[in-house]
Write the structure tokens for this entry.
Amino acid sequence: MKFAQFVSSYTTGDAVSNSARNLGEVLSALGFETRIFADHVHPGAAKDVYLTAKFNPHQWDAVLYHFAFASPIAEEMTMWPDLKRYILYHNVTPSHYFRGYDEHSREACKNAREQLYLLKDHIDCAFAVSNYNAAELKAIGYKQVELMPIWFDSKLNEAQTDERLQHRFDDGFVNFLFVGRLTPHKSQHDLLKVFYLYKTYYNPNSRLLLVGSGQEKYVSELRSMILQLKLKDVHITGHVTDSQLATYYRCANVFLSMSEHEGFCVPLLESMNFGLPIVAYDAAAIGETLGTSGVKLKTKDPRLAAELLHEILTDPVLKTALIQKQYERLQQFQLEPIKQKIIDSLGKAGLPA
């Protein structure tokens, strides 16, 4: 069977792009002929990814769109009744988070939601990377929804350490890390509040590493907040390479998240892999991804978060127990257990897996 996958944009290191590549490997191992198509392919990304303009529906048996952004492919899928049609839902950020910050992103997310409603009567089966996402699809009216979790891709382990960064940040300071785009729903402003209290009342020899690029206005607000708080040792990195990302993980002591909307949150798995205790606000799919591991905050109270961080960092037994529990959770996202779930979901969707 010939099985085509679509992504809106294919970029090295992107969670959706990685998901398409990994699923392609599983499909190939199962005997499917598969190929990835994208509206946009980032320079330097995989050479075996093709532009959607080159897709001919008459040459394929089934298509799957990794749904995370608005794309012309969503509307085109409604015109391919002879093909088996699927989506894998990674979630779409609610558009209201971008109001007043990024009108283009707000409109794109709004359009994506409209396309999600449009597709529900044209899809043979919808897959979702989390139960949180699956519940959203069912609420919209998708008739068949199956779980297809992301598995952990350990390729970041192979990335070389950036010696310049290591020399700069592996210096005895306590390093708090968050990885993700700098946008209002990721709530880096709340991280600044927690860090301010921790640095002021617990440990002045600490820093906050905000890894990722973001929206210009929101980043400007973060920088203004840093100045107002007279807060030192906050580093906003911008876009990073795999080598730099791996180095930030290796230099960090704790992964801290106050994000309000995550459809899965791959950096949680990366933090488990690098042995970082995780403290995260329990919103959207965060609790599901963590399972019984990590420290899940039920409130955004920065005083409580700062106190918990101090407790973890000054109690070796507690820290070790958290890391061990997270490692056990990570094993559930390894290839073999996830591969079997993918095979089961494909079978339920009527595909010969």
